[in-house]
Amino acid sequence: MTERTLVLVKPDGVQRLLVGRILARFEERGLKLVGLKLVRIDRALAERHYAIHRGKPFFEGLLDFITSGPLVALALEGPNAISIVRTMVGATRPHEAAAGSIRGDLAVETAQNLVHASDSPETAASELALWFSPAELLDYEREVDRWVLAPEE
Ligand code: CMP
Asked: For the whole model, what pTM was predicted?
């Protein structure tokens, strides 16, 4: 099933010059880039994005971190994009992330784990709506998709 999902390359990814390499992993996998922006978010958006973590001991630090500098928001599309991206990103705690995943290859700390990715269809829908207006999510054809995607039945 074709899905769309949100990925954030968080401020540590921007500061560590990893935006291009992280984006390339998703492109090389075959996922389609349908939205892209560099933003420095305010605390209000950070609180909405991480609302599920309100009340946890790391919540204020998480808000400080995610608002500390620019980040890159990506919207990616593809068959089973949500679970494909989650697997590519790896476990939240980098010491539990599989080698070959972004966190397993590039991160060592939970608070500086480089990327955020939507964890379910419901979360993907609400997070995409939070980060992108409808006009910022593009529909377009890719020639390469005849080699990446199975033909429609
Ligand atoms: P992310 O996928 O962006 O979703 C919530 C984030 O909270 C998570 O990645 C981590 O960066 C951060 N996080 C989760 N647990 C902890 C923790 N115990 N201490 C600090 N940060 C945490």
From this structure: 0.97
Q: How far is CA 77 from CA 61, 119, 141, in A?
A: 31, 14, 12
* CATH label of the domain that carries residue 119: 3.30.70.141
Which residue minimizes the CA distance to atom 3 of ligand 1?
116
* Ligand 1-lining residues (CB < 6 angstroms): 53, 58, 62, 92, 110-111, 113, 116
58 is in which domain, residue-wise?
2-139
φ/ψ of 74, rounded to 5, equals -120, 140
Position 147 in a domain: no
The string of pLDDT tens digits covering residues 56-95 is: 999 999 999 999 999 999 999 999 999 999 999 999 999 9
**Local confidence band at 152 (pLDDT 50, 70, 90 cut-offs):** confident
